[in-house]
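Re: the 138-residue chain
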Amino acid sequence: MRRDQKFRDQPSLFGDPIADANGSSNGPCQSPAADARAVASNLARASHPATSKLAADTLISAGKFATDEAAAMELVEAYPGRTGYELDKIDGTNDRRISKRLGGLANKGLLRRGKRRLCGAKGSQCVTWYVVENNDGE
């Protein structure tokens, strides 16, 4: 089999989704379920065991991921300039549910990393977090 035939049906990672002969989407982000699978695949690395991937799928499908992201946004908004560990302590849970979501929210452009400083909860240098302000007048 030629290389171009072998990879012809592989979804594109770049650009707009490509419609196949049946009109169905062949590209990324084709449905909410596909979006959830993409997020879950980013939560568990390829080198992680299958149980990590199952846990990520469960986190997404149960809605806990979105709930934790919303809680993290609210805490950073209420306590700007705090570290992830300090926000976890304010949250009152011991599972680091807040600090685990901060990097992903920064990657989405919703939070920004501030300067490092001595963390009151951990006792070592940690990055601080701030909400990115909207520039569209809202």
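The mean pLDDT is 78.
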